[in-house]
Amino acid sequence: MTRYLIDTNTIAEPMRPRPDVQVMAHLERYQAELAIAAGVWHELLFGCLRLPPSQKRMAIETYLYQVVAPSILILPYDVRAAEWFAHERARLTAAGKTPSYPDGQIAAVAAVNGLTLVTRNTSDFSVFDGITIMKWHT
């Protein structure tokens, strides 16, 4: 059963020079309950593909294609998510708080799938109604 939608900064934690011990424990503990949004997959690949050929890039590609892709559900930004985000974007824009488009897509995927969004950047998502946000980072 999927319970958590993991943001880019959380799913990338294992690639950090000194990964946060708490995040790593949570990723392992909840491994069967994790998903990422297609937009997060895009951000991960884009960041990797911008790197010149190197050992670092090869390590990231290995992590993405041999760990993330086969073991973590990648949820689409679909019609339900688009409708949810359109409503939130209109509400927030009218209030003078125009949201980031990628963050809005990620929040929408969490909202329409009833998932808790796990992120280091809670402030990026706190403007959205109807989502639960959690921070695993210390």
Helix-strand blueprint:
Elements: E1 4-6, H1 8-11, H2 21-29, E2 34-37, H3 38-49, H4 55-71, E3 73-75, H5 79-94, H6 101-112, E4 116-118, H7 122-125, E5 132-134
Parallel strand pairs: 1-2, 1-4, 2-3, 4-5
Helix pairs in contact: 3-4, 5-6
Describe the fold and architecture.
The protein has helices at 8-11, 21-29, 38-49, 55-71, 79-94, 101-112, 122-125; strands at residues 4-6, 34-37, 73-75, 116-118, 132-134. By secondary structure, the chain is α/β, with parallel strands linked by helices. The chain starts with a strand and ends with a strand. 54% of the residues lie in helices and 12% in strands. α5 packs across α6. It has one domain (4-134): Rossmann fold (3-Layer(aba) Sandwich). The chain has 7 helices and 5 strands; from the N terminus they run βααβααβααβαβ. The chain has a 5-stranded parallel beta sheet with strand order 3-2-1-4-5.
**CATH architecture grouping:** 3-Layer(aba) Sandwich
| CATH class category name | Alpha Beta
Strand order of the largest sheet: 3-2-1-4-5
**Which quaternary structure do these chains form?**
single chain
Q: How widely separated are the two ends? A: 26 Å
**Can you tell me the residue ranges where pLDDT is under 50 for at least 5 consecutive residues?**
none
H and E order: EHHEHHEHHEHE
Strand percentage: 5-15%
CATH topology: Rossmann fold
How many separate domains?
A: 1
Structural class comes to: alpha/beta
Give the averaged pLDDT, no decimals.
95
Largest sheet: 5 strands, parallel
How much helicity do the residues have?
Answer: 40-55%
CATH superfamily: 5'-nuclease
| Large-scale geometry | globular
Query: Could you give the count of β-strands?
Result: 5
Question: Compute the gyration radius: what is it?
Answer: 15 Å
Number of helices: 7
